[in-house]
Fold this sequence. Notes:
Elements: H1 3-19, E1 26-31, E2 34-40, H2 43-46, H3 53-65, E3 73-79, H4 83-91, E4 96-101, E5 127-129, H5 133-148
Parallel strand pairs: 3-4, 4-5
Antiparallel strand pairs: 1-2, 1-3
Helix pairs in contact: 1-5
Amino acid sequence: MTHEEAMRIALEEARVAAAHGDVPVGAVILHNGEVIARRHNEREASNDPTAHAEVLALRDASKLLNSWRLSECTLVVTLEPCVMCAGATQSARIGRLVYGAANFEAGATASLYNVMSDPRLGHNPPVEHGVLADESAALLKEFFASKRS
């Protein structure tokens, strides 16, 4: 499965989040090119501040693989991860991170901080950004515009 195909699945997840009032962010984890986890934001739905799509997907993938080390996996997410999610991604030793839209308000892999390239953390996975970024950004823009009106 290509990163673009995985991002399309993540976008489907993001739409599910928006449908129940959560910020539309979706995440997919690939292992050997196959989807092993797919989640969306559930902070509003669960009243859990840690229920970001990335964290939930990392939890599911770790359970499935029976390991917290996800070095053979790729995390594909519609929005650049925040500090919490970048930290969780680092802690999981993810093999690769792919994201869509930049997150200029809270991005922690390029926009505000760059947790993934900090040599002090000892794990610096490759990061690919901009995959279907326009679609990801449009979904977010539409969601927040509807909240303001």
